[in-house]
Amino acid sequence: MQVSINVNGEQRSHEVEDRTLLVQYLRDDCGLTGTNIGCDTTSCGACTVLLDGESVKSCTVLAAQADGHQVTTIEGLADGDELHPMQRAFQRKHGLQCGFCTPGMVMASVSLVEENPNPTEAEVRAGLEGNLCRCTGYHNIVEAVLSAAEEKQGAAE
């Protein structure tokens, strides 16, 4: 089947099998390997992307379901060399260790802060509970999300 998906602001069209997962489409057909495959069971969140602005685990979405929609991956957050505020916060607050979960954590965090611009620590922890960090770096991840939210609030004022 033919799918046409706006990926990171660029219209992409490919012939895919009906059973192709969005994560496979992004990695194999689009060559965007920042979205990681961690579990294939929606347990870890390493494959989190934004589908029409909402975070989804791309291992549980078919490419066909994204046909005609907009997908943003970790590669699409930065504006050229200018990192997205969430990426800067993860860097500044050391919100990564091995880095495997980082793309999914960043994407889920972007969605979280869009939905709740001024989250509490408890709300960040609850909002990211579907994303696992095997290095147990949650403290710095939470600090990064709170920092990015504060930066966004400051920019809005």
Description of the molecule:
By secondary structure, this protein is an alpha+beta fold. The chain folds into 2 domains: 2-76, Beta-grasp domain (Ubiquitin-like (UB roll), Roll); 85-155, DNA polymerase, domain 1 (Orthogonal Bundle). 36% of the residues lie in helices and 15% in strands. The protein is built from 5 helices and 5 strands. The chain has helices at 22-29, 85-92, 102-115, 121-127, 138-156, and strands at 2-7, 10-15, 48-51, 54-57, 70-72. Strands 2-1-5-3-4 form a 5-stranded mixed sheet, sandwiched between helices. The longest helix is centred in the last third of the chain and has 19 residues, at 138-156. The chain is globular. The relative contact order is 0.16.
The pLDDT mean sits at 96
Number of strands: 5
**SSE series:** EEHEEEHHHH
> How much of the residues is beta strand, in percent?
5-15%
Overall outline: globular
Low-confidence stretches: none
What is the CATH homology-level superfamily of the largest domain?
A: Beta-grasp domain
Number of helices: 5
Summing up helix and strand content along with how strands pair, one would put the structural category as alpha+beta
Which value, in Å, is the CA radius of gyration? 15 Å
CATH T-level fold name of the largest domain: Ubiquitin-like (UB roll)
